[in-house]
From TrEMBL:
<protein>
    <recommendedName>
        <fullName>HEAT repeat domain-containing protein</fullName>
    </recommendedName>
</protein>
<feature type="region of interest" description="Disordered">
    <location>
        <begin position="175"/>
        <end position="203"/>
    </location>
</feature>
<feature type="compositionally biased region" description="Basic and acidic residues">
    <location>
        <begin position="1"/>
        <end position="10"/>
    </location>
</feature>
<feature type="compositionally biased region" description="Polar residues">
    <location>
        <begin position="23"/>
        <end position="35"/>
    </location>
</feature>
<feature type="region of interest" description="Disordered">
    <location>
        <begin position="1"/>
        <end position="92"/>
    </location>
</feature>
Length: 203
């Protein structure tokens, strides 16, 4: 009897689950893996059918889910046409004039002024420019500056009166040409408000 009972324990018909089911065999629930996959797909389809529908967000009204930045389209940027290329001559003139106004000392002023004239430009009627030219080493340029300043100061007040009077005194004292010294003295009297003694004596 014990031998028969031992055989019963190993009988595959009485213990069908002792061995692993082969491919395509049924599971304990009596379903095949294929039936289980079909059931899952069916369940997923039902869940999708009865799940509450979400209204799609209008395009551009939300934020980008990836980085959270606002994806609202911004108004188009107005692109202005590039400005026309400036006149290279005008640019060169401005550069040389700025250089003249920036330098100090007679040698540097003389060099900058000659460079400006050598490029074919003429000095503008500006007090600061002609005040610089009073330091030119060529007295003919100094006399031209004195004449221009005399005309400008008829209708304008001197911008840098102390500097102007100081340079005029130095020209009166150290200029080699007498006409240069006389022009400087006359302009200094005009700036200081004193009458022109030469014109009174001539009358």
């Amino acid at each position: 009897m014990r031998k028969d009972e031992t055989k019963v324990w190993h009988n595959p018909e009485l213990a069908p689950f002792a061995r692993a089911p082969k491919s395509g065999s049924t599971t304990r629930s009596g379903t095949t893996p294929q039936d289980s996959r079909v059931a899952k797909e069916h369940r997923a389809a039902l869940e999708a059918l009865f799940a509450p529908r979400r209204e799609p967000e209008p395009e551009g009204s939300g934020k980008n889910g990836k980085n959270g930045r606002d994806s609202t389209p911004k108004p188009g940027r107005i692109v202005l046409a590039p400005p026309p290329q400036s006149d290279p001559r005008a640019t060169e003139r401005q550069r040389l004039l700025s250089k003249l106004l920036a330098v100090e000392g007679r040698p540097h002023i003389t060099k900058a002024a000659n460079e400006f004239l050598g490029a074919g430009f003429t000095f503008p009627d500006d007090q600061d420019v002609h005040l610089k030219l009073l330091e030119h080493s060529d007295e003919s340029r100094v006399r031209e500056a004195l004449s221009s300043l005399s005309s400008l100061l008829v209708g304008e007040l001197p911008k840098r009166r102390a500097v102007l009077e100081s340079r005029l005194r130095r020209i009166e004292e150290f200029a080699e040409d007498e006409s240069t010294r006389d022009a400087a003295a006359q302009l200094r009297r005009q700036v200081s408000g004193r009458p022109d003694t030469q014109n009174q004596s001539a009358q």
